[in-house]
Amino acid sequence: MKRRTFLSAVGSGLVTAAGTALPRTALAAGGGEPIKLGLLFSQSGTMANGESLLKDTALMTIDQINAKGGVLGRQLQGVVVDPASDWPMYAQLSKQLILRDKCAALFGCWTSVSRKSVLPVVEAQDSLLFYPLHFEGEEQSKNVVYLNSPPSSSVLPAVDYLMSAQGGEAKRFYMIGSDYVWPRTINKMLKGYLKTKNIPDSAWRERYVPFGQSNFQTIVREIKEFAAQPGGQAIVVMTVVGDSIPAMFKEAVNQGIRATDIPILGLDVVDSDLEGLDTKPLVGHLSCWCYFQNVDTPQNRQFKSDWKNYVSAHGLKHRPDMVIDPMVSTYLGINLWAQAVTKAKSTGTEPVRHALAGQSMIDPAGYKVSMDASSQYLWRGDMIGSINANQGFDILWKSKDIVKPVPFSPFIGKA
Amino acid sequence: MIHPRHFLLAIACFVLASIGFAQIACAATANRASAIVSFCASDGDKAAALAQIVALGVSADVPERAWSRRMIDAIRDGALVCTADGHALIQASPPLDASSLRPLGSSDTAASGASPYVPSIVMMRRLAVASAEIDMFAPQSETRAAAARQVDKFFALLDPAIVSRAIRHESDPQIAAALTVAMAKRGLTSEVKADRLAAVKAVAEVPSETAHTTLADFAAQESVKRDPELRQAVEHAIRGIDTSLAFGKAFSILFSGLSYAGVLLLTALGLSIVFGLMGVINLAHGEFIMIGAYSTYLVERFMQAQLPAFFDAYIFVAIPVAFVICAACGMLLEFLVIRFLYRRPLETLLATWAVSIALIKLVQLLFGSQNVEFVTPGFLNGGMQVSPGFFVTYNRVFAIALALLIFLATFSIVRFTKLGLLMRATTQLRDMARCLGVAAERVDRIAFGFGAGLAGLAGVVLTQIASVNPSMGTGFVVDSFMVVVLGGAGSLAGTVVSSLALGEINQFIEPFYGAVAAKVAVLLLIVLIIQKRPQGLFALKTRT
Predict the structure, then answer these.
(1) Do the domains A24-148+296-379 and A152-291+383-414 sit in the same CATH topology, yes or no?
(2) Ranges A121-135, A372-386, B21-35: which has the least confidence
(3) How do residues B409-425 score in pLDDT, each as one tens digit?
(4) Contacts of A210 in chain B (CB under 8 A)
(5) Residues 73 to 102 of B: which have CB under 8 A from any A CB?
(6) Which residues contact B16 (CB under 8 A, 6 or more apart)?
(7) B364 and A254 in contact by Cβ < 8 A?
(8) Where are the domains of chain A?
(9) Which helix (H) or strand (E) holds A286?
(10) Does B25 reach chain A within 8 Å, measured CB to CB?
(11) Phi-psi category of B251—alpha, beta or left, where left has phi over 0 and alpha has psi -120 to 50?
(12) What average pLDDT does the segment A234-246 reach?
């Protein structure tokens, strides 16, 4: 008897726990059935920090489009699932979103490994995945829309900058990454690129740490040692992700590394990673994205105030005054999808894909972004940001115009 | 067209100058304005403009020095805004005019839509040098000492004239000595042999990787190779540096291992009571660590709002708070779930797993899924160069010390108190203990609460080392089980030995083969040991 009451108690606990993970539907009144969009973002696990922001940005964008009357006279509805930072789960849930929930398109994934996990599903079901992160490139699927830049238009310009006289003439490179496909490909490409710049193999070092690593003592000590060796100014190209970013920064600061000694180019660092940190000793470390929230354009002011209002109106736990590039990418993705659907007068994958080519809109970053007709990559502007004392980035450099995305790097084979 | 403000200034200067006053002040204002104009020129040489500002900063004039320092800070902080009319302002509340440092009216600020200047890495290096150069003339000796350390770091970029002037002005012999050493290092490039020998000696005095590189570069020069005396001196110096660096490296590896072991010990200690002594497979152990970390967060927030004067002490206040909160949670869990499941490991495993997921989701609902922000207490920031090549960070030292203290306290409680005796009796031979009148159920509850409280303490320490978010515990629970199983269930000493061994082995492998290989090696090692000794390293002899 006692045992049964206990089991039912545990059972009901489980149901409540699972309840938060079940699809939350945002039904709204409109003509006909709502069009469903699958939102594949983790709200738990090591990626929860970033991906939960994207989920709420997507819901906000959907609300905005609905407020303007929806698409094709129908309302949009976001179907939220939680893959819990578990890569195979992304594949499973994307299948569920396409087959059971009949979603017209999917928006989601942060890490490349999660995208690679969803890829066979969207290809088999011929659906569309809109992917909002900058990544390693080397991929082109007619079922994925790449909303952010491949390394040719983000990482290489930043490295070029650091190698220039203005950027401190970097001559030696310490690459530290989390151990998975994105950092490994980026570093492979970087090594190929450095070879074309006549940098000898002895001038770089490559290290990987397990996913979620938080102990960077040995790495930082090695960085100091590496930087002190002869051969010129050293920089760190950091491709660790998730919780490892603040851990790495903390250790670097504690061991006395400043941007003036050894600049760290953190390729996956966004404002939200700086949230828990005192950034005064971090001032000057760099990152490169297509958007930084300090960019001063009317569209950006609008986007930021929309986000602020959305966060307070829905009582969300996010910081209301923080917008990061992948959020803007998600916003652009949903809007571009809506434009394409309107043009195609259909939500079918094939007509939407055709209509997407050449779609353009004004990015909050101030550029007029445009969808490449052949590669399904988005042409965007490029920026280098420098960490400031207020847990944000100042814009150090930005491209004059949108940059052509090159999905397959010519430098990969050279390494 | 002359700007009216300039015009008035000129008239004022003229009038005052005719009285013979304030000539210097007016000249200074002109200097300031010209430095600002050249800094703000879009195609101007910013380095030259900075030199102009520094020249004012090292002058004898006190207000000019203060202005120069303020400007350097403003540029570094990205607060300097160049406006269209050749002026500049410093962003603050209220905004200041960059030249006079007087607050500006709102109309002046509104007119400038320009964004602030963002310094590049090269500029930041120059700014660091500039502030060091200015600080060498500061009245406070601490500021001068800090500047001298900076001078040593950037010695290649410094203006030697300014440093030699600072040495002449310096009253504190220690600071003067530090500056002299820094200057001596420049002697490597000198033509005079005595200077070069002195420089080699000065560089070798503070062994470091950088010193090693400097000397190796120096030894490679043709002129040095030709001179036997110089060559011998350099080679001797390099050998000396190599020896001390080798020691430093060995110490570093030991220390990293120790600090990793400290974290393992902290997280495993609670589990060694709950799993080791009581035999409960508690998969929610990591969540108690997480609750401990969030309790610390609440304490930190409370102290920041209510007792800002004692803010740095929050970490110590959090220790009892986290212990009590986690112990209470643990006792509640024992009362609601665990006590029905003793001796049924499979069900315990499933139930505690469910509890772990429920706790993660609950904290996510209450606090959100993002990392929570901790302000590190001042005394835990940074670190110390113990010896050449051996740098310790205070947060790691703190973790090791606290791990040791908590272990000693736990050990004494289990070993020497009545509660510990009852705990051991109950877990070793439950029926006999009950026959002798021990309230076994109560002891179980207290022991479980004690274990949970210890996990909470681990959470307190981890706030200074790892990121704090609802799912932080999942990573630690695996490591904790590894430590307890390897050490031998029920043996506290085993827990210490196994965490030390795992920590040191891991950190010994990492520098050579990387963190991934270290993890693989440690896991394989555990598999091997468990195969040979399923009971763990230190088996407890019981009669069950």
Answers:
(1) yes
(2) B21-35
(3) 999 999 999 989 998 88
(4) 515-516, 519
(5) 76-78
(6) B22, B23, B26
(7) no
(8) 24-148+296-379, 152-291+383-414
(9) strand A286-289
(10) no
(11) alpha
(12) 91
CATH class of A152-291+383-414: alpha beta
Among residues B132, B109, B111, B128, the alpha carbon closest in space to that of B119 is found at B128
For residue B436, pLDDT over 60 is answered with yes
Instruction: Determine contact, residues B294/B471, Cβ cutoff 8 Å.
Output: no
- The band of A178, judged by pLDDT with boundaries at 50, 70 and 90, is very high
The H or E element containing residue B524 is: helix B492-532
Task: Report all structural domains of chain B as residue ranges with CATH numbers, in order of start.
Answer: 4-122 (no CATH), 139-226 (no CATH), 252-532 (1.10.3470)
HSE, side-chain direction, 13 A CA sphere, residue A289: 28
CB atoms B373 and A276 under 8 Å: yes
**ipTM, interface predicted TM-score of the complex:** 0.75
Residue B79 has a pLDDT of 84
Q: Which residues of B touch A9 (CB under 8 A)?
A: 336
Cβ of residue B259 closer than 8 Å to a chain A Cβ: yes
Closest-CA distance of chain A to residue B519, Å:
8
Contact A44 B354 (CB under 8 A): no
- What is the pLDDT averaged over residues B390-399? 90
Contact between chains at A48 and B370 (C-beta distance less than 8 A): yes
Asked if B184 contacts B199 with a C-beta cutoff of 8 angstroms, the reply is yes
Scanning B189-313, the segments in alpha helix (DSSP H) are: 193-205, 209-219, 222-226, 228-271, 285-306
Mean local confidence (pLDDT), A172-184: 93
Q: Which CATH number fits domain A24-148+296-379: 3.40.50.1100, 3.40.50.720, 3.40.50.2300, 3.40.50.700?
A: 3.40.50.2300
B128 contact A CB<8A:
yes
Q: What are A170's two structure tokens?
A: 């970097």
Chain B closest CA to A284's CA: distance in Å? 6
What is the largest distance, in Å, between two alpha-carbon atoms of chain A? Answer: 78
